[in-house]
Design a protein that fits this description.
The complex is a heterodimer of chains A (about 240) and B (about 425). Chain A has about 240 residues and is of the alpha/beta class. Chain A is built from nine helices and ten strands. Helices cover about 40% and strands about 25% of the residues of chain A. The radius of gyration of chain A is 18 Å and the shape is globular. Chain B has two domains: about 110 residues, no CATH class; about 230 residues, MetI-like (MetI-like fold, Orthogonal Bundle), CATH 1.10.3720. Chain B contains 17 helices and one strand. Classes of the chains: A alpha/beta (about 240), B mainly alpha (about 425). Chains A and B meet through helix 2, strand 6, helix 3 and helix 5 of A and helix 13 and helix 14 of B.
Chain lengths: ~240, ~425
């Protein structure tokens, strides 16, 4: 099977500070990858490069057969195929949950309002908050907001989902309800790249683990191997501290 | 000695209450007799003490009735709102005394001693304001030099405007947008043609004759409608990634913000025609409206930019990640939030715009304040400047206050916070 995402020798700098160093990564369709590592190691930047919320300066990133660079003309249509879930939810506070979900399908995918709302309700049901559809984001709990954000991304019917620390801003009680939705999604066959510190989730869902430190991919391994016999000392140290 | 000794207690509530209210009453009697009867009952004191007597007595009286949880509801309300500490008690008293001393003379001038009836200056025999002046000149204050026989054209325009605005509030959302579109795009053309005439057998009335409050409205309305979108685009331009657009936006904004409006108006009247090719002519009023519009658009741009900067980056990220391009992102996600945030700033700019319109007198156009300036120099009505400008202030205040209330309502209505 060909790769749906391919990064080759990607380097990225913020001014003089190099955040990504020689990143190589291939993701196959339906593969689930969990990225972990200490803060500031470049995990978020890595996945933000995949839908070009950040620009990379060197190397190539190919998503679903399209090379992403500053010359990419149809970056919007590539982004439409890559769903993203953020740490801070980033729901649109001036719109109801239903409108949050149906807005992009209407304006980007050109669905009719009725089709878009049906799609939105379907996805809200999938994350089990269809009863909150008429409310505004400010009226929901953190866990509900994050589930709404997942539903919003799913409404674009993406081929790939990127999760940028989706549970880090949540109260401990609400983490489970979000993780349940993500496990569900993974079982449904979605291609996922997840930046998270939830190692329980990683063990349950991930095909491959990636450990990053100081802008490099230090270790990439099958999930079992990663947890049972990590190769590098840095990974061992990290795992010993969070497990 | 400490005030604690005379600290009022609940046990002797009625004693303290009687004492306190007594002292307070003496204070008020003193101030009333001073103001209305011209009688100084504390005249035997040195003047400074006599002057402060009501305050001292009142403060002491209020101290005596400051009994917490007295069980008497009225007393508790008074204590909570006017009398929570000695300092607050004195502040309350000062405010009340100032109102007693200075509001009645104002009311006298405004209403009780004022003259409303008559038709010449000589009919004003009272001490107060001479509203006859405003009454006689009212027509001019409203319509300027617009011919009396044609004033129905202005009336119809404004009635249409008001009734359409009224309809916006009454009709369901489905029709609302058509009325708003009508008001923004069709109505201005109709009103402009109706008021200026020259078609359908209507007499042509040149803009030099327009004036009074109707001109205030015309200038403000056009400037308001146009400065808003221009300001929004300038704000976006200033944050653009394209250097050409960014620097021209910055240049435009800083140029117009750095120049006084009166200079801009003067330039529009005197300098601007020099740049036009020979033979082309642009109406004076049109030039003035364009000048005010661009001037206020520069301010609007900075207000809107403030809103844009207040939005977290996550909103941009989320919009982009859903595949929205620049324009969709800005008009569906960013602008609705940014504009909502800066409603107070927008209202501020609009109020300033309305109040800036009198400056068009520098090019010879006389709106409300300008007409008053003209009327007060009429030999038959000399010395009426105060009445005239108080009237102008009142009218401007009513306009601006309603706009301010409307903006506050809008803020409340659009709030999606919990």
């Amino acid at each position: 099977m060909s790769n749906i995402i391919e990064l080759k020798n990607v380097n990225k700098w913020f001014d003089k500070f190099q955040v990504l160093k020689d990143i190589n990564l291939e993701v196959k369709p339906k593969e689930k990858i969990v990225v972990c590592g200490p803060s500031g190691s470049g995990k978020s930047t890595l996945i933000r490069c995949i839908n070009r919320l950040e620009e990379h300066q060197e190397g190539s990133i190919v998503v679903d057969g399209n090379e992403i660079s500053e010359n990419t003309k149809n970056i919007e249509s590539i982004r439409a195929e890559v769903g993203m879930v953020f740490q801070q939810f980033n729901l649109f506070p001036h719109l109801s949950i239903l409108d949050n979900c149906s807005l992009a399908p209407i304006w980007v995918k050109k669905l009719t309002k009725k089709q878009a709302e049906e799609l939105a309700m379907e996805n809200l049901r999938r994350v089990q908050i269809e009863d909150q559809a008429a409310k505004f984001p400010g009226q929901l709990s953190g866990g509900q907001q994050q589930r709404a954000a997942i539903a919003r991304a799913l409404c674009m019917e993406p081929k790939i989902m990127l999760f940028d620390e989706p549970t880090s801003a949540l109260d401990p009680e609400m983490i489970k309800e979000v993780l349940d939705v993500m496990v569900d999604l993974a079982k449904g066959g979605m291609t996922m790249i997840v930046v998270t510190h939830e190692m329980g989730f990683a063990k349950e869902v991930a095909d491959n683990m990636i450990f990053m430190d100081e802008g490099r991919i230090v270790e990439r391994a099958k999930t079992n191997d990663f947890f049972e016999n990590p190769k590098s000392d840095r990974t061992k140290l990290f795992l010993s501290q969070i497990l | 000695m400490n005030l604690r000794i005379i600290k009022p207690k609940k046990e002797n509530l009625y004693t303290y209450l009687a004492l306190g209210i007594g002292l307070l009453s003496i204070g008020f009697i003193d101030i009333f007799s001073n103001t209305f009867l011209n009688l100084n009952i504390t005249g035997f004191f040195p003047s400074i003490i006599s002057y402060l007597t009501p305050l001292i007595l009142g403060a002491f009286g209020l101290h005596l009735i400051r009994i917490e949880y007295s069980g008497n509801k009225t007393l508790d309300i008074i204590n909570k709102n006017f009398n929570s500490s000695n300092f607050n008690a004195i502040l309350s008293l000062i405010v009340i005394f100032i109102l007693i001393k200075y509001v009645p003379p104002l009311l006298n001038w405004f209403i009780f001693d004022a003259n409303f009836l008559g038709s010449t200056k000589e009919d004003c025999i009272g001490e107060g304001a001479c509203w006859v002046f405003v009454r006689v000149w009212f027509n001019r204050f409203m319509y300027g030099m617009y011919p009396d026989a044609e004033q129905w054209r202005i009336n119809i325009s404004f009635l249409t405007l008001l009734s359409s605005i009224g309809l916006i509030f009454i009709l369901p959302i489905k029709f609302k947008k058509y009325i708003i579109l009508f008001l923004l795009f069709i109505f201005p053309l109709i009103a402009l043609n109706l008021i200026s005439g020259g078609i359908f057998g209507l007499e042509w009335i040149e803009t030099g004759a327009w004036g009074g409050l109707s001109l205030t409205f015309i200038v403000s309305a056009f400037a308001l409608i146009f400065c808003f979108p221009i300001g929004v685009f300038l704000a976006l331009g200033r944050r653009s990634d394209l250097p050409a657009i960014r620097y021209s936006s910055i240049g435009f904004i800083e140029l117009w913000r750095g120049v006084p409006l009166i200079t801009v108006l003067f330039m529009s009247a005197v300098m601007f025609p020099m740049f036009l090719p020979d033979g082309t002519y642009m109406d004076k009023l049109m030039r003035v409206i364009i000048a005010i519009t661009l001037f206020e658009a520069a301010y609007m741009a900075e207000v809107v930019r403030g809103g844009l900067q207040a939005l977290p980056r996550g909103q941009y990220d989320a919009a982009k990640s859903l595949g929205m391009g620049y324009w969709r992102m800005h008009f569906l996600i960013i602008m609705p939030q940014a504009l909502k945030l800066v409603i107070p700033g927008i209202a501020n700019t609009f109020l300033a715009l309305v109040k800036d319109t009198p400056l068009i007198f520098v090019v010879g156009l006389l709106e409300l304040a300008g007409m008053i300036g003209l009327a007060k120099t009429n030999p038959k009505w000399l010395g009426m400047a105060t009445e005239g400008y108080v009237f102008a202030a009142l009218v401007f205040w009513i306009i601006c206050f309603s706009m301010s209330r409307y903006s506050q309502n809008l803020e409340k209505k659009l709030s999606t916070e919990r």
